[in-house]
Amino acid sequence: MTSTVHQKIHDVNLDKKLETLLLKLLEYNSEANVEVPIRHFLSNYEIISDNFWEQFKQTNTYEGALESYYKFSKDQCMLVDSLLQTLQFTLNKDNTKEELSTMLKDAFTF
After folding, report:
1. Residue range 73-90, pLDDT digits in tens
2. Closest-CA residue to 75 (of 104, 46, 38, 109)
3. What is the DSSP string of 29-67?
4. Rounded to whole angstroms, what are the CA distances from 67 to 13, 25, 55, 81?
5. How far is the CA of 75 from the CAs of 46, 82, 95, in angstroms?
6. Are 34 and 90 in contact (CB under 8 A)?
7. What is the pTM of this model?
8. Which residues contact 97 (CB under 8 A, 6 or more apart)?
9. Which value, to the nearest 10 degrees, does the dihedral of the CA atoms of residues 6, 75, 80, 35 take?
């Protein structure tokens, strides 16, 4: 199961920081309660990424392209937030929650 998750992380073309973060998280804890939310995240990420590229291909202006990217970025942030909340809910150790929260927030501080 883990190797498939690792491959999926590479296949969906995540931001390098997020990819590294998810791989390190799985290295630290590869239990199902961590893998399943990551799998859901990756599936949803793939959907929003595909939607972005569909919209991007159809746009004729740089404003449209930037607007599509802005929407994709917002959707990506919501997915990361949802993943963080799900993992915090499922993990029982306080130190794991704090480490995870810090890692994810550091990766997506704009």
Report:
1. 999 999 999 998 888 877
2. 46
3. --SHHHHHHHHHHHHHHHHHHHHHHHHHHH--SHHHHHH
4. 21, 32, 10, 21
5. 11, 10, 28
6. yes
7. 0.76
8. 87, 88, 91
9. -40
